[in-house]
Design brief:
2 copies of one chain form a homodimer. Chain A contains 10 helices and no strands. The first copy, chain A, is mostly helical and 203 residues long. Chain A folds into 2 domains: 46 residues, Arc Repressor Mutant, subunit A (Orthogonal Bundle); 139 residues, Tetracycline Repressor, domain 2 (Orthogonal Bundle), CATH 1.10.357.10. Chain A is globular. At the A-B interface, helix 1, helix 6, helix 7, helix 8 and helix 9 of A face helix 1, helix 6, helix 7, helix 8 and helix 9 of B. Chain B binds a DNA duplex (18 and 18 nucleotides) through helix 3.
DNA sequence: GTCTATAGGCGGATAGAC
DNA sequence: GTCTATCCGCCTATAGAC
């Protein structure tokens, strides 16, 4: 912990506190405590709360969309790319389950957060490429006709929701930590199976 | 608006503000403004912020789990029950898309929120019944072997995530309000199809 | 029941010593 | 770079008039 620079420790601490409490609910004192640092130092390294928040938020956004590039620029077979993406996506969310909740909520509070934060991520290129990949598979008769939108919604839903909703699912299904975790691990395969079986049903 | 009682208007206003801002981020003044009422009146009708919050939270929880009972106590064929549940679930979440995000986040902040709030909802009965229904279908050879846990995670994911993640999905997929809404409407059918096709693949 | 005024405390931000 | 002390505004909560 202490071998990290002050900046690093602050950012890690701020991520923890902001993701749980949100911009307005977070206390600078909590972040300072979590980082094992003086409250005044937060203002030394980052001018104010808002600025610290925006830096954290932007980093998290890039992490999320980084995985999507991986899905596009592989040369593997379509089915394998789906499998790789599902595994990667589940692993990323498992690292920090509150993060997607945090992003979804903050974006609703403040829609401008999305705008202009994507200079480096070419979403249009990713979309175009992925549509071409899907169309090629459809043309070859490998998969049924499906839109990029529907496929992506399905995959993202099945990967992300069961992890972000952990406390509720554990409660509703009466699961302990261990069996919940086994279920999620098994999903790295079963989600791909579900998606791929759906694609292979030719209509 | 004004034909509603003060209590009712406060609760509606508080729901709006709390779901977006969370317990700590919400301002009593914002709730008062939203309810078109004096700030002092909030404390007249509800002793304090925490108590107002808990009342709202509990109501939302019951709304979520109310839909699950509907899934169990129908006498319709299994496939139709799935279809009915998916439609109902999507409709409920569409009514108030921030609500699941709010619940997921608050429960993570404060795990005790779940405990003791379910005197009236017999989760264990619902689980047992649903397991029996699934087992009967498996025995009759109608569906493949699947656990309650996996099935529920899949259905909930596909219904809830695309709605709570609306702003992100619209941005990533470059959708306008209209085409996004069409996609979600179409999911009332396509999600059921996906789930049912998966169940019918006998392994 | 409704409203104004104000108490009281918390939290972000800064000044300034070291 | 680090820490203490402190300012000041904001927000919950209540007192008390009507």
């Amino acid at each position: 912990m202490s071998e990290l620079s002050a900046q690093e420790r602050i950012k890690i601490a701020a991520t923890k506190v902001f993701t749980l409490k949100g911009l307005e609910g977070a206390r600078m004192q909590d972040i300072a405590d979590e980082a094992n640092i003086n409250k005044a130092m937060l203002h030394y390294y980052f001018r104010n709360k808002k600025q610290l928040f925006e830096i954290i938020f932007e980093e998290k956004l890039h992490k999320i969309f980084g995985a999507m590039e991986l899905l596009i620029f592989s040369k593997d077979a379509f089915e394998n790319r789906i499998r790789a993406f599902v595994e990667k996506q589940i692993s990323i969310v498992l690292e920090f389950p509150v993060m997607p909740i945090f992003v979804m909520l903050e974006v609703r509070k403040n829609p401008e957060l999305l705008e202009g934060k994507f200079k480096n991520i070419p979403l249009d290129v990713i979309r175009d490429n992925f549509r071409k990949v899907i169309d090629a598979e459809v043309m070859s008769g490998n998969i049924r006709r499906i839109s990029l939108e529907e496929l992506l919604m399905n995959v993202m839903s099945l990967c992300i929701y069961p992890i972000i909703a952990e406390p509720i699912l554990k409660y509703v299904l009466d699961l302990n930590q261990e069996s919940y975790f086994e279920l999620i691990e098994a999903r790295k395969k079963s989600v791909s199976d579900l998606i791929i079986n759906d694609l292979k049903i030719l209509k």
